[in-house]
Design goal:
Blueprint (H helix, E strand, L loop, with lengths): L8 H11 L10 H5 L15 E7 L5 E7 L1 H4 L4 E6 H6 L31 E2 L5 E7 L2 H10 L1 E6 L6 H4 L15 E7 L2 H10 L2 E13 L7 E7 L4 E5 L5 H13 L6 E4 L15 H13 L3 E4 L2 H7 L2 E13 L5 E13 L7 H4 L1 H6 L8 E10 L13 H19 L3 H8 L8 E2 L5 E2 L4 H11 L5 H10 L3 E10 L9 E6 L5 E4 L10 H12 L6 E4 L17 H27 L7 E4 L2 E4 L5 E3 H10 L12 E4 L9 E11 L4 E12 L6 H20 L30 E5 L17 H17 L14 H15 L1
Parallel strand pairs: 1-12, 10-11, 14-15, 20-21, 27-28
Antiparallel strand pairs: 1-5, 2-4, 2-6, 3-5, 7-15, 8-13, 9-10, 9-12, 13-14, 16-17, 18-26, 19-20, 19-25, 22-23, 23-24, 26-27
Helix pairs in contact: 13-21, 17-18, 20-21
Length: 791
C-alpha cells in the first residue's frame, strides 16, 4: 500500500533547497534518453500501416507538362499513387505565412500559397510532385522511381540579389521581381541627416550564409483516419501541438479543431525547423483517409537537405555613423533576404523584422533604418533557425563596431564602453521600437573580460608566435528580443496516486523542460519535485499554447505555472478553511502546507487534494484543486551577454582553432544553471558551425552542391572548445519569475566573436573582412592574396 503520510514543513523546506529555483538539478529525462529508451516519431507503428515515398523534382525550375503514374500503380504492393491534381480536388488549403508583415507602401506581403504537391510548376530541386503508398517502404520507393515526371526546364536563380533584378527568372506571375516583401523600418530622413553630420561612417558588405538545420532526428509522421468519427490523427515531431493542430485543421484540412488529434513524443532537435506543417503530412493524411489504413513517412538525410527549411541567408550592406568621439549616431542596414521558393511559417520575419528589432543591441544608438527585400529564389524554403534573425543582427552590429574602432584608431573595448546603455537609463526605449526593462551591460562586459583573462592575452599571443601560429581575440556583446508575445497554458491536475500533472503548451525538443518546470511548480506549491509529471505532446490535453520558439519556454510556461499556482492556493485556502473549521482569512500557505495562523494545525497540499477529491465539499467550496488556466500574452524579454573568443591560425594551411571561449550572460532569474550552461554550449556550437564551416551551396542551374555530409560540414567534438560560463543576472521585470530566454543566446554571442577573433589574428596582413564560413581554404587564400599585394 502506498504511504500517504504527508511531508512535514521541515521536509518540504529541505526538499525546496535541493530542488528549488536556482539549483542545478539533473534533467529528469536523461536516464531514459541516454539509455536509448526515448520514443521518437519513427518508433511508433500502427497495425496494418502502409508506407509513403515522395516523388520530387530534379529540376530547380520548370513547367510540369505531365506526370505518368501508370507503371507505378501496377507495381507489387502499391496501394495508391497521388498527384497534385488529386489533392487539389480534395480542396486542401495552402501553406501560407500568417504574420501581418507589410511592405514599405503599407500593402501586405505577397503570399506564395504553396500547395502540398505542385500542379503547374516546380520551383526548387526537391519540390514534391507526387507520392506513392505501398505495403512496404521498399515497394513504395521502387514505385516512386517508376513515376515519370515531364518537366520543361526554365532558367533558375538562387541569389536573392540576382532574383530581384529586372529580367531575372520569375517564380510567380503575381510577384514582380520575386520580391515578396519590401520591408522598411525607421525614419529615413532623420537617419540620412545623422549620417550626413557624422564625423565617421563605417561601411561593410556582409554575407550571412545559408545553413541547413540537420537536426539529429529527421522529420517523420504517422497518420490515421477514423471513418466513424471523421477524425484525423497524426504523430509528428513539432515544437508545440496546440498551434500546429490549429493550423493544420483550420487552414489546411479545413475541419474543426476537434477533428484533428496531433501527437508529439520525444523530438530529436528542431531549432525552428519542425515548427511548421509540411506537404508530406498532408499527403499521408489524405492517403490514410482514402485507404482506410495508417500511413507512415520518414524522411532520409539526403532528402532532409532538400525538404527541411533552411536558415539565415542574407546579403546586407551595413553602415554605422559615429561622431568625432566615437559615439553612435545611427545605424542602417539594407539588402536582401533569401526566402527560397515558398513562404510558410514565419519565414520573412528572421530576414527583416527580427533584424531590425535586435540591431541596436546593448548600445545607445539613437536612430536606425532597415531596408530589406525578402526575395523568392529557386532554392529550398527558408524558416526559423536558432535565433531567427537575432544572431544575424548582433553579428552585423559587432562587425561594424570592430571595423569602426580600427578605422578611427579607437580601442575596441573603449568604443563599446562609450556606447553602452547604462542601468540608470532603464527602462530604455531603443531605436528598434522596443523598450528594454532591465540590464547591466557594462557589468556583464567587465565580468567577461575577467573570466576570459583578457588582460594576459598579449602573453598568449607571443607564445603562439613562437610556434608559428597567429593568435587573435575578440569580445562582443549581444542582446536578444526574445519570447514573442503569446498566451500559454498552465493546467495542473492532482492525481489520486499523489502525483501532480503539469500540462503546458510549450514543448521540449531537447531543452529539458521537465526539470525546470517541476522546480518552479515545487517552489510555488511545495509539492515534491519527484511528483511532478510534465505533459506537452497531446493536442487533446494541450488545448492552448504558443509552443516553444523564440526562447520563450521558461518565461511563458513559468508565468502560466505561477498564475495557475496562485489560483490553486486560493482554492486551497477555501477548502482548508472548511476542513479545519477555520475562517478563510486565517489560513496561511507556505512550504506546501495550509496552516491556521498562530496554530500548529495544518494540512499538506497533496493531502488536501486527496481530501477534496474523496470528500463531499459543500456549496461554495471547491471540490478539486485542479486548474486549467491560460495566461494573457506573455511579454518579451531581453537576455544579453558578452562573449570572448580566442583563436589560433596556422598561416600555412588556414586552419582555425578556437583555443579559448568565455561567455557571461544575463538571463535574469536562472531556474537551473546547469541547463542554462548547456543551452549556451549548444548555441555556441551552432555558431561555430556557421562561422567556420557550414554553408548550403547551389550551382548556377539551382542544383544543390551540399546535399549530404560528404559536402556539408558540421562541427565535431574536437572543434568545440572548453567554455568558461559566467552569469550576471538582472531579473526581468516583465514576468513574475524574472526570467529571460536563454536557448538561442549562444548563437547570438558566438558568430561575431569568432569571426572578429579570426580577423584580429589576421591584422598583420591587413585583412579586414572575410565572409562566413571562414574555412581553411578562405583563410589561406586571404593570407596568400595579402602577401601577394605586399610583394
Amino acid at each position: 500500500m502506498q504511504d500517504r503520510t504527508p511531508p512535514s514543513s521541515l521536509e518540504n523546506a529541505i526538499a525546496l533547497q535541493k530542488f528549488g529555483v536556482g539549483q542545478p538539478v539533473r534533467r529528469k529525462e536523461d536516464d531514459t534518453l541516454v539509455r536509448g529508451k526515448g520514443k521518437y516519431t519513427d518508433d511508433f507503428n500502427l497495425p496494418g500501416q502502409a508506407y509513403a515515398f515522395i516523388v520530387r523534382s530534379s529540376h530547380a525550375h520548370g513547367v510540369i507538362r505531365g506526370i505518368d503514374t501508370a507503371a507505378a500503380r501496377s507495381m507489387p504492393g502499391v496501394l495508391g499513387v497521388w498527384t497534385g491534381a488529386d489533392l487539389t480536388a480534395a480542396n486542401y488549403g495552402p501553406f501560407t505565412c500568417g504574420l501581418p508583415l507589410k511592405n514599405r507602401d503599407g500593402s501586405p506581403l505577397l503570399q506564395t500559397n504553396r500547395t502540398a504537391l505542385m500542379t503547374d510548376k516546380v520551383r526548387y530541386v526537391g519540390d514534391p510532385v507526387a507520392f506513392v503508398v505501398a505495403g512496404t517502404l521498399s515497394q513504395a520507393r521502387d514505385a516512386a522511381e517508376a513515376v515519370v515526371v515531364d518537366i520543361d526546364p526554365l532558367p533558375a536563380v538562387t541569389s536573392a540579389e540576382a532574383a530581384a533584378k529586372p529580367g531575372a527568372p520569375q517564380l510567380y506571375d503575381h510577384i514582380p521581381n520575386n520580391v515578396a516583401l519590401d520591408y522598411h523600418y525607421g525614419d529615413t530622413a532623420k537617419v540620412e541627416a545623422a549620417f550626413a553630420s557624422a564625423a565617421h561612417v563605417t561601411k561593410l558588405d556582409i554575407v550571412n550564409t545559408r545553413v541547413a538545420v540537420v537536426a539529429m532526428e529527421p522529420r517523420a509522421a504517422l497518420a490515421s483516419y477514423d471513418q466513424a468519427s471523421a477524425r484525423y490523427t497524426i504523430q509528428v515531431p513539432t515544437q508545440g501541438v496546440a498551434g500546429n493542430r490549429m493550423n493544420l485543421a483550420k487552414n489546411i484540412l479545413k475541419v474543426p479543431n476537434e477533428k484533428v488529434h496531433l501527437l508529439t513524443a520525444n523530438v530529436g532537435g528542431s531549432f525552428g525547423m519542425k515548427n511548421i506543417n509540411y506537404p508530406e503530412y498532408v499527403c499521408i493524411l489524405h492517403a490514410a483517409k482514402a485507404l482506410g489504413r495508417p500511413v507512415k513517412w520518414t524522411d532520409e538525410r539526403s532528402t532532409s537537405f532538400l525538404s527541411d527549411s533552411h536558415g539565415r541567408a542574407g546579403q546586407m550592406h551595413c553602415e554605422l555613423a559615429l561622431d568625432s568621439e566615437g559615439r553612435f549616431l545611427a545605424v542602417r542596414i539594407s539588402g536582401y533576404g533569401n526566402l527560397g521558393a515558398y513562404i510558410t511559417g514565419v519565414a520573412p520575419s528572421p530576414l527583416s523584422l527580427n533584424v531590425g528589432k535586435n540591431l541596436a543591441s546593448v548600445y545607445r544608438t539613437p536612430l536606425m533604418s532597415v531596408d530589406i527585400k525578402t526575395v523568392l529564389t529557386n532554392t529550398t524554403l527558408m524558416g526559423a533557425y536558432r535565433g531567427a534573425g537575432r544572431p544575424e543582427a548582433n553579428y552585423y552590429m559587432e562587425r561594424l563596431i570592430d571595423r569602426a574602432a580600427d578605422e578611427m584608431g579607437i580601442d575596441r573595448l573603449s568604443l563599446r564602453k562609450r556606447n553602452f546603455i547604462k542601468p540608470a537609463q532603464m527602462p530604455f526605449s531603443a531605436s528598434s521600437g522596443v523598450t528594454y526593462d532591465s540590464g547591466d551591460f557594462q557589468g556583464v562586459f567587465n565580468k567577461a573580460l575577467e573570466i576570459s583573462d583578457y588582460a594576459n592575452f598579449a602573453k598568449r599571443r607571443k607564445e603562439s608566435r613562437k610556434r608559428g601560429r597567429l593568435r587573435g581575440i575578440a569580445i562582443g556583446s549581444y542582446l536578444e528580443v526574445t519570447a514573442p508575445p503569446g498566451v500559454e497554458l498552465g493546467k495542473i491536475v492532482f492525481e489520486a496516486d499523489g502525483s501532480v500533472r503539469l500540462i503546458t503548451g510549450t514543448l521540449d525538443y531537447g531543452q529539458g523542460h521537465a526539470t525546470p518546470f517541476a522546480q518552479v511548480l515545487s517552489a510555488q506549491l511545495g509539492v515534491p519535485f519527484e511528483s511532478v509529471k510534465l505533459e506537452q505532446g497531446d493536442s487533446d490535453i494541450v488545448h492552448t499554447g504558443s509552443g516553444t520558439g523564440g526562447s520563450r519556454s521558461i518565461t511563458a510556461s513559468g508565468m502560466a505555472i505561477v498564475e495557475a499556482s496562485r489560483l490553486i492556493i486560493e482554492k486551497g485556502k477555501r477548502a482548508a478553511a472548511h476542513l479545519m473549521e477555520a475562517a478563510e482569512g486565517d489560513i496561511e500557505f507556505g512550504d506546501g502546507r495550509f496552516t491556521i495562523a498562530g496554530t500548529d494545525r495544518s494540512i499538506d497540499i497533496i493531502e488536501l487534494a486527496r481530501a477534496m477529491r474523496e470528500g463531499k465539499m459543500p456549496e461554495g467550496v471547491p471540490s478539486s484543486l485542479d486548474v486549467d488556466h491560460t495566461t494573457e500574452p506573455v511579454p518579451s524579454t531581453f537576455p544579453n551577454g558578452c562573449h570572448v573568443a580566442e583563436v589560433e591560425i596556422d598561416p600555412e594551411t588556414g586552419i582555425v582553432q578556437i583555443v579559448r571561449y568565455a561567455g557571461v550572460n544575463d538571463f535574469g532569474t536562472i531556474v537551473n544553471p546547469m541547463l542554462v550552461a548547456g543551452q549556451m554550449h549548444g548555441g555556441v556550437a551552432q555558431g561555430i558551425g556557421q562561422a567556420l564551416m557550414e554553408c548550403v551551396s547551389y550551382d548556377e542551374s539551382g542544383q544543390p552542391i551540399t546535399g549530404s555530409f560528404m559536402d556539408y560540414a558540421l562541427p565535431r567534438a574536437g572543434d568545440i572548445p572548453m567554455m568558461e560560463v559566467g552569469d550576471h543576472p538582472v531579473p526581468a521585470k516583465s514576468n513574475p519569475l524574472g526570467t529571460k530566454g536563454c536557448g538561442e543566446a549562444g548563437c547570438a554571442g558566438s558568430l561575431s566573436t569568432i569571426v572578429n577573433a579570426v580577423l584580429d589574428a589576421l591584422t598583420e596582413y591587413g585583412i579586414t573582412h572575410i565572409d562566413m564560413p571562414l574555412t581553411p581554404e578562405r583563410v589561406w587564400r586571404a593570407i596568400r592574396d595579402a602577401k601577394a599585394k605586399v610583394a
